[in-house]
Design a protein that fits this description.
Length: about 260
C-alpha cells in the first residue's frame, strides 16, 4: 500500500468518525438526566418551602417570589445542560409534546421530580423552627378555602403556568427563539407570576412543588387544583407551540 493510499484511508476513517459521533453512554442518556431532575427539583422546592416557612407574612409575597425565581433560574443554569432543567411535571409534559424530551424519559422525569419535592419538603421541615413550620402548614398551598374560589384559582394556575411553560419552551427548546438568558428569564417568570397571582391561588405552577409539602405536612385540601391547572397549561402551551409558534423542526403544519 502506497503512502497516498494510506493517507486516503486515514482521511476516510476521519470522515466516518465525524459523520457518526459516538453514541452517548446509557448512563448519560437515561440515568444522569433523572438524577439531575431529582436534585434540581429538591434544591428548588427546598428554597421555595423555606422562604415561605420563615417568611411569616413579614414581607408578603415578595420574599417567596424572589426566592422561588432566583432558585429556579440558578438551578436551571447549573443543571439544565444535563436534563433540560425542567424540575416541573407540567414543563416536562410540554417539552415532550414539542419533541424536546424522549418519550422514555417522561415518566422517569415525573417520578424524579415528585421524589425531589418530597425530599425537599422533609429537609425544610427538619431545618426550620417547628412553630414557623406549623404556622405555614409546611409551605403547602393553603390559599384555597371555599368552592367559590375554584374557578379563579384554576384559571390563574392555567394562565400563570402557561406563561412559565412558554418561557421554558420558547427560551430553551425552540431553536428560533432560544437564548442563553433562558434560565434567568424562566426564573423571572416565576417571580412575576407569584407577585401577580399569589393571592389568588398561591401561584404554584408546579405539581412537584405542591406534592412534596402536601405529603410531609399531610395537607390535601384542594390539592388537585395544583395538578389540573399546571398540567392543563402544559398541554395548552405544548399544543400551541407544536401547531403555531414552533420552528420548522417543531411545527407540524405550514413548514
Amino acid at each position: 500500500m502506497t503512502d497516498t493510499e494510506m493517507v486516503q484511508m486515514s482521511f476516510k476513517d476521519s470522515e466516518d468518525y465525524l459523520e457518526k459521533p459516538p453514541k452517548p453512554h446509557w448512563y448519560e442518556q437515561y440515568v444522569q438526566p433523572c438524577l439531575a431532575e431529582l436534585l434540581g427539583t429538591m434544591l428548588f422546592v427546598f428554597i421555595g418551602c423555606v422562604s415561605v416557612i420563615e417568611n411569616g407574612d413579614s414581607t408578603g409575597r415578595l420574599q417567596p417570589a424572589i426566592a422561588h425565581g432566583l432558585a429556579l433560574g440558578l438551578t436551571i443554569a447549573i443543571l439544565g445542560g444535563i436534563s433540560g432543567g425542567h424540575f416541573n411535571p407540567a414543563v416536562s409534559l410540554a417539552a415532550w409534546i414539542i419533541g424536546g424530551l424522549n418519550t422514555f424519559l417522561v415518566f422517569p422525569y415525573w417520578v424524579s421530580q415528585l421524589c425531589g419535592g418530597m425530599i425537599a419538603a422533609a429537609l425544610a421541615k427538619a431545618m426550620t423552627v417547628e412553630d414557623n413550620y406549623q404556622n405555614s402548614t409546611g409551605a403547602a398551598f393553603t390559599t384555597m378555602f371555599t368552592d367559590e374560589q375554584l374557578p379563579r384559582a384554576i384559571g390563574a394556575e392555567i394562565i400563570m403556568t402557561f406563561y412559565l411553560v412558554m418561557a421554558v419552551c420558547m427560551g430553551a427548546i425552540n431553536e428560533k427563539t432560544r437564548t442563553p438568558l433562558a434560565p434567568f428569564c424562566i426564573g423571572f417568570t416565576v417571580t412575576v407570576d407569584i407577585l401577580a397571582g399569589g393571592a389568588i391561588s398561591g401561584a404554584c405552577m408546579n405539581p412537584a412543588r405542591a406534592f412534596g409539602p402536601a405529603v410531609v405536612a399531610n395537607y390535601w385540601s384542594y390539592h388537585w387544583v395544583y395538578w389540573v391547572g399546571p398540567m392543563a397549561a402544559g398541554l395548552l402551551a405544548g399544543g400551541i407551540i407544536r401547531l403555531l409558534l414552533g420552528d420548522n423542526k417543531i411545527r407540524l403544519f405550514l413548514k
